[in-house]
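Still learning folds. Look over my entry:

…
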Amino acid sequence: MSIKNLSQLNYEIFMDWGSQPSRAVMTVVYFLKIPHKINEVRILKKQNVSEQYKKINPDQKIPCIIDNENFFLNESHSIMRYFCQLYGDNQLYPDDNLKKRALIDSYLDWHHSNTRKMHRMLFKKLFEPQLGIQTSINIEELESDVQKALAFIENNYLNHKNKFFFGFDNYTLADISAYCELYQSKVVNYSFQPYPNILEWMSKMQQINEIKQTHKVYDELLNKRIQKQSSKL
């Protein structure tokens, strides 16, 4: 694609600020300064299973994107990779270091079956009752799986002092995806005290402007939820 055509692209982004993958995509969008329009699809209001949204994304999940050339793409990590390659970013997903990119990909693949269990645990504890659904997921097993995932991150991905994932000097897509997932635990005041490397890394990530921008709306929604719960006591 030529630079001229690239400059003419803009995107509709279908997302929910309460969704970790949505926030990861938006962090990349802000980092790359991509022209966009946000269309919120609220999961807790079941808007993602509406007939209207099904016409946009038959998979009925978020996030997804559509550009003004009618190109559609879903799955957060695919969207993040696509944006980085399209706009030629060399920090988040380097195109000049195949080994570094392979390491980032290895985490992004690992994330789904491991770090992502934080979401499943929170969903089981908090949102199943609100949505009026019940699954057979064992919460004790989930909590154990989350602890194993955190221990692996602590001792493998973040085992370099004052560095980002894999000992890199700069954060990448791996850091963004992991941070957005772990930050969600704020809703239940999950303690990361047993994981000092994770705590140090999260403190660094919180200073990044695009991370602040992405999580501002989520924090506002969370505060409203806390106030609502407090008013019922």
Summary: The longest strand covers residues 11-15.
